[in-house]
Design a protein that fits this description.
CATH topology of the domain at 97-294: Transferase(Phosphotransferase), domain 1
Strand order of the largest sheet: 1-5-6-4-3-2
Number of helices: 24
Distance between the termini: 48 Å
InterPro entries: Kinase-like_dom_sf (IPR011009), Prot_kinase_dom (IPR000719), Protein_kinase_ATP_BS (IPR017441), STRAD_A/B-like (IPR047173)
Shape: globular
Binding site for ATP: 45
Helix content: 40-55%
CATH superfamily of the domain at 97-294: Transferase(Phosphotransferase) domain 1
GO molecular function: ATP binding; protein serine/threonine kinase activator activity; protein serine/threonine kinase activity
Structural class: alpha+beta
CATH class of the domain at 97-294: Mainly Alpha
Domain Protein kinase: 16-277
Oligomer: single chain
Keywords: ATP-binding, Coiled coil, Kinase, Nucleotide-binding, Serine/threonine-protein kinase, Transferase
Bound molecules: adenosine-5'-triphosphate
Largest sheet: 6 strands, antiparallel
Number of strands: 13
Length: 663
């Protein structure tokens, strides 16, 4: 993991003097430091490798990416080395800090347009470079835009970047859920067809809004709600009334980036030619404007931390034990994920009480409350009724519920795969179940769990709700045997509330070795503290294009595999998924029977039957077919990528020859 830049920065911690803390991410602390032999001030990002137990690959990738890139607008590491249990990444010191920090210190309402244009142009140059070299940054946001004392702007943090030319497993991991929710493109959330560099263009658009307003759209909402709003509503934008101070060209630029269909978003190269950038100035302008009068980064950082701690205390006093408030996370530039449904419900309810919480149906950050049909993701749109049911204080919760009601099955499954949200969490998100819980629609019972009587669902929820899945409970990667099932069931009963503030909490409480994350399953491909990414697409459980449609029932035998891979694969995955769902349903049923009537003999019979069904050779056969087909598709995509790159190179070459000829 060691590498050096030309300047020969020493690879020994003894050669560096650490000064004050100037930044803190989920996975690292950043210090201002002196490189003694070179007498140069640097920034050192210190990552505790023990805390990053599952993400060594991610770290290696970040360091490798940082060593390979070479562009004035991309933060490049001088060198990196391990010392004790830590990895030290030595970087140029960016004395201005991040744009987020600057805004939080002096510009809470956002920057003026010339500053924004100047900043965004520099970021865009970085993106043009990264995209041309096959990288997707995946975490473009104000917190990752750093400024040095002269006003030079650099894009930082390659912790979650991906290579577009990655192949095999890594390529497939691009179908996973990476980024920070407010800045995350809808296609990244949806996980239907993977995503490409256009995901950065969406984040770039959100960043533009962030710089304009001082915060990203929806930043005060809990992650799940951000997700729903991003997927269901029209894209945010600059509002005609509220954002009068901004030019038409800025509004157009934002509009061009924040289009839900990634194909309709411009490339970074094209965007750089946008007439909005006529407003941009040389970067020294930044040092004369936004950096002017700023206190040293360390002081600002300390003040921000104090402010955060103060807010935390106040919120704690106001709301009891609820630690995770989006606003707080935002101040840190972090979005810790919390997929515990109970917590989310509480957060949703809390948001209504927050002084600046707005009704989501009103315009938020230029966000239009009426769904634009052209932009719609063809969801079963829920018409929110913001004024109803105010009296019970559950209005926001209802919004959340009704949003979840129209939330497509696939993203929910995607979430389940990515965040280990329990099957029951997913079903708990169904308003039917919630209403039953609230006693609102007793007697009504239809829909997904049609095979189970209402009371079974309600009863069952008592045992299962609010739990993030331990181990591979919903992962079809692992076929659950009898012993496992027992284990799983007892675990469900004894271990609740796995979710929560993830690393944020972990950071506050270092003595928490038994956090749920530590028990996370083997399918974890990336862990970024604020969230963890599991290999949804590495296993055949990946939510594919099927809503239990006819295709599912159409395929009865693997002998029909003379069809093309692309037609067969979804069907196989459907069957697997159905299998998994049925298994879950039966387990629920068993649980219910066990709890209510104690008919253990019957249960054993059902269990045996089940077991036989799961261990069936057919399922194994299908599984291996799926694996084989996935591999074939993987290598075909790989080949396609290679050809595309070659093609692009040839085209460039031809163009330059043609140009020379013309001259
Ligand atoms: N070279 C630098 N010079 C000055 N400040 C820096 C530098 N690198 C990082 N920082 C500060 O430290 C903070 C955390 O750094 P970084 O984003 O790399 O950590 P992380 O753990 O990857 O964070 P994240 O939560 O965004 O993933 C940044 O937001 C920035 O304010």
């Amino acid at each position: 993991m060691e590498y050096k830049s030309e300047k020969r920065f020493p690879l020994d911690a003894k050669d560096y003097k650490l000064y004050e803390e100037v930044g803190e991410g989920v996975s690292a602390t950043v210090y201002r430091a002196l490189c003694v032999p070179l007498n140069e001030i640097v920034a050192i990002k210190v990552l505790d490798l023990e805390k990053c137990n599952n993400d060594l690959d991610g770290i290696r990738r970040e360091v490798q990416t940082m060593s390979l890139i070479n562009h004035p607008n991309v933060l490049r590491a001088h060198c990196s080395f391990t010392t004790g249990h830590s990895l030290w990444v030595v970087m140029p010191y960016m004395a201005g800090g991040s744009c987020l920090h600057i805004m939080k210190s002096l510009y809470p309402e956002g920057f003026e347009e010339t500053v924004i244009a100047t900043l965004l142009r520099e970021v865009l140059k970085a993106l043009v470079y990264l995209h041309a070299h096959g990288h997707i940054h995946r975490d473009v946001k104000a917190g990752n835009i750093l400024i040095d004392s002269n006003g030079a702007v650099k894009l930082a943090d390659f912790g979650v970047s991906a290579c577009m030319f990655d192949t095999g497993d890594r390529q497939r991991s691009r179908n996973t859920f990476v980024g920070t929710p407010c800045w995350m493109a809808p296609e990244v959330m949806q996980q239907l067809h993977g995503y490409d560099f256009k995901a950065d263009i969406w984040s770039f658009g959100i960043t533009a809004l962030e710089l304009a307003h001082g915060h990203a759209p929806f930043s005060k909402y809990p992650p799940m709600k951000v997700l729903l709003m991003t997927l269901q509503n029209a894209p945010p934008g600059l509002d005609y009334e509220r954002d009068k101070r901004f030019s038409k060209s800025f509004k157009e630029l934002v509009g061009a980036c924040l289009v839900k269909d990634p194909k309709k978003r411009p490339t970074s190269e094209k965007l750089l030619k946008h007439h909005f950038f006529k407003h941009a100035r040389p970067t020294e302008y930044l040092s004369r404007t936004i950096l002017d009068g700023l206190s040293p980064l360390g002081d600002r950082f300390r003040m921000l931390k104090e402010k955060e701690a103060d807010l935390f205390e106040r919120n704690k006093a106001l709301y009891g034990d609820i630690e995770q408030l989006s606003q707080q996370e935002y101040i840190r530039g972090i979005s810790a994920w919390n997929f515990n449904l109970e917590d989310l419900k509480n957060q949703a309810a809390l948001d209504d009480d927050m002084p600046n919480a707005e009704d989501p149906s009103k315009q938020i950050d230029g966000y239009k409350d009426v769904e634009n049909p052209a932009e719609s993701l063809s969801l079963e749109t829920s018409q929110e009724t913001p004024t109803s049911n105010q009296e019970d204080g559950f209005n926001d919760l209802h919004d959340l519920e009704s949003s979840l009601a129209s939330f497509p099955i696939k993203p929910l499954q995607a979430l389940k795969g990515c965040f280990d949200v329990c099957e029951d969490d997913a079903s708990a998100t169904s308003p039917r179940t919630m209403y039953q819980e609230n006693g609102r629609t007793k007697g009504e019972c239809s829909g997904q769990s049609s095979s189970m009587p209402c009371h079974v669902i309600a009863e069952h929820k008592k045992f299962f709700s609010g739990t993030l899945l331990p181990d591979n409970a919903v992962s079809p990667k692992r076929v659950i045997g009898d012993g496992d099932r027992d284990y799983q069931q007892s675990k469900f009963q004894s271990e609740r509330n796995y979710s929560g503030p993830l690393l944020y909490r972990e950071k506050r409480d270092g003595n928490n070795p038994s956090s749920a994350e530590d028990t996370s399953d083997g399918a974890l491909v990336q862990r970024k503290g604020r969230f963890k990414v599991t290999s949804a697409e590495l296993s055949p459980k990946g939510p594919t294009n099927c809503y239990f449609n006819q295709v599912c029932g159409g395929l009865t035998s693997p002998t029909t595999l003379n069809l093309t891979a692309s037609t067969v694969l979804p069907s196989l995955q459907c069957i697997l998924q159905q299998n998994a769902m049925q298994r879950e349903e039966i387990i629920k049923l068993m649980k219910y029977v066990e709890q209510t009537s104690g008919k253990r003999a019957e249960l054993a019979d059902v269990g045996d039957l089940l077991q036989t069904a799961y261990a069936s050779s057919r399922e194994r056969e299908l599984q291996s077919q799926v694996n084989y087909l996935q591999q074939s598709v993987g290598s075909l995509i790989e080949e396609l990528q290679r050809q595309k790159v070659k093609n692009a190179q040839l085209e460039r070459h031809l163009n330059s020859l043609a140009r020379k000829d013309e001259e």
